Amino acid sequence: MTRLLHRALKTPPMAVSAEGITFTDAGGKTYIDACGGAAVSCLGHGHPDVLAAIHRQADQVAYAHTGFFTTEAAEGLGERLVADAPEGISHAYLVSGGSEAVEAALKMARQYFAEKGETQRRHVIARRQSYHGNTLGALAVGGNEWRRAQFRPLLMEAHHIAPCYAYREQRQTESDAEYAVRAAGELEAKIEELGAENVIAFVAEPVVGATAGAVPPVADYFKRIREICDRNGILLILDEVMCGMGRTGTLHACEQEGIAPDLMTIAKGLGGGYQPIGAVLLNEKIHDAFAQGSGFFQHGHTYMGHPMAAAAALAVQEVIARDDLLANVRAMGAYLRERLEDAFGQHANVGDVRGRGLFQAIELVADRETKAPFDPAAKLNKHIKAQAMERGLMVYPMGGTIDGVHGDHVLLAPPFVVGREDVDTIVARLSDAVDAALAEVAA
Ligand code: PMP
């Protein structure tokens, strides 16, 4: 009997070992990790260099409170993150995960304006199709109604605009450029409605992860978003917790949009799951406002800058750079996409195949022509997950509701070390699992 409260209240299989891209459970069954958990395990499991770095750090200093000490591991990670960051980023703030990073970024944005005497600013704008974490602030700005609904009375006020979701929201008569203008135009209209002087920031995931499955923006959408934020004097926070740290083929997803944020959140692939870690990357003007104002950021957590987490993340990032794994993300990402198109491109119940790098997804529909989704009560995504696990495959299926439209998606985010044969096996098992799940739902 388990004494743990599990997510689904049902005890999942017991993992007893994990190496490379494979998990083994207590019964000896193996599973290919094709989603890195939730796009976390970018290096795969049991990497000796990362384990050695964690051991070294444990021997040296396992924990030091940042109110008393800094450590070589935390300083080294900060140096590395800033050196590789988008233009203007000057500092990193280390926390323990994605939600903590989002909370810290929201408070940094508010304090930035407070330091400048603009204390009337209180509005944050985000998008309906988004997930920014499960803590109350992050949940408030997130747009996933399923996760928010019963907690709504506890959530701070936040404002939501339409996502950039070409498959469902781009009109047939509209070019990408026209759609980018219309979708980004919603931000301008919302800022105008709230009064630019009252707005703190706009928050968005460059490639949407956990609400809709690897939805990339259309070209120039984020260029316009950046320009609208600048013109109205509000901050741009990019949440790259899921899509960042190499997942899409460049270290940061925003590089492919040709923009830099004021604040950026990262987690998941930062430590690759070897330790819990996240970070906020902030630009110089935010750091300067704190330095010239109160002299500190009014925030903090007991485990921020944790040396073992920092050492693990530094090692993960060093291996990715040393082994040029982003080249493999691009090559295997393209191959995975090709194989997904082969398997699902003409499938009667797959409406869209999309993504970037090793961050790819399929969207399931009851009818390809009308794009009608499956009845949420059928819980197709749960059937797919069970059928995939049965076949020794970990994928990340989700159901979501965007503007009243339910969608079932399967997200794939395999480790960056995945090879061609692995991709073939992943797609073959997924294809079987999807068909078996569809048959179950139809029955
Ligand atoms: N932001 C995004 C974009 C995410 O995908 C997630 C996690 N799925 C979070 C924030 C929250 O991160 P965590 O679960 O580490 O708190």
Write a concise synopsis of the structure shown.
The chain has helices at 36-39, 48-60, 72-83, 98-115, 136-141, 145-148, 166-169, 176-194, 221-232, 284-292, 307-322, 325-344, 380-390, 420-442; strands at residues 15-19, 22-25, 30-33, 89-95, 123-127, 159-161, 199-204, 235-239, 263-266, 278-283, 350-356, 359-364, 393-394, 396-402, 405-412. By secondary structure, the protein is of the alpha/beta class.
Major sheet attributes: 7 strands, mixed
Bound molecules: 4'-deoxy-4'-aminopyridoxal-5'-phosphate
Label the CATH architecture of the largest domain: 3-Layer(aba) Sandwich
Number of separate domains:
2
CATH superfamily of the largest domain: Type I PLP-dependent aspartate aminotransferase-like (Major domain)
Structural class by sheet pairing and helices: alpha/beta
Annotation, overall tally of beta strands: 15
Report the helical percentage.
25-40%
> From the alpha-carbon coordinates, what is the Rg to the nearest angstrom?
21 Å
CATH topology of the largest domain: Aspartate Aminotransferase, domain 2
Please give the count of helices: 14
Low-confidence stretches: none
* Separation, N- and C-terminal Cα atoms: 33 Å
Q: Identify the strand order in the major beta sheet.
A: 4-10-9-8-7-5-6
Share of β-strand residues: 15-25%
| CATH class (first level) name of the largest domain | Alpha Beta
Overall 3D shape = globular
What do you see in this structure?
GO terms for molecular function: pyridoxal phosphate binding; transaminase activity. One of its GO terms (cellular component) is cytosol. Belongs to the class-III pyridoxal-phosphate-dependent aminotransferase family. Keywords: Aminotransferase, Pyridoxal phosphate, Transferase. InterPro entries: Aminotrans_3, Aminotrans_3_PPA_site, PyrdxlP-dep_Trfase, PyrdxlP-dep_Trfase_major, PyrdxlP-dep_Trfase_small. The chain has 443 residues and is α/β, with parallel strands linked by helices. It folds into 2 domains: 151 residues, Alpha-Beta Complex (Aspartate Aminotransferase, domain 1); 273 residues, Type I PLP-dependent aspartate aminotransferase-like (Major domain) (Aspartate Aminotransferase, domain 2, 3-Layer(aba) Sandwich). It has 14 helices and 15 strands. The strands form 3 sheets. It has a 7-stranded mixed beta sheet with strand order 4-10-9-8-7-5-6, sandwiched between helices. Strand 14 and strand 15 form a beta hairpin. It is globular and about 65 Å long. The mean pLDDT is 96. 4'-deoxy-4'-aminopyridoxal-5'-phosphate binds next to helix 4.
